[in-house]
Design a protein that fits this description.
Layout: H1 2-8, H2 13-39, H3 43-66
Helix pairs in contact: 2-3
């Protein structure tokens, strides 16, 4: 929830880029965890991680929408 508030409360492009990079790092980490869950057949943990991935994907969309377009 904090991340969403950070995105909503800033319009500074450099801060938005920093949030985007932080979000992408989290996504990468979660994909690694998801892979490990499937390796050990922990489907409940995989489901929980998938939910987090959806949230982070939507957060990335929100960040991209706020970033100014290059002219």
């Amino acid at each position: 929830m904090e991340s969403r508030e950070e995105v909503e409360n800033t319009s500074d492009a450099s801060q938005l880029h920093a949030l985007l990079n932080k979000n992408r790092e989290k996504l990468g980490s979660l994909f690694s965890k998801l892979n490990k869950c499937f390796e050990v057949n922990d489907l409940q943990a995989a489901k929980d991680i998938a939910t987090e991935l959806i949230y982070l994907d939507r957060l990335e969309e929100a960040i991209k929408e706020k970033l100014p377009t290059a002219a």
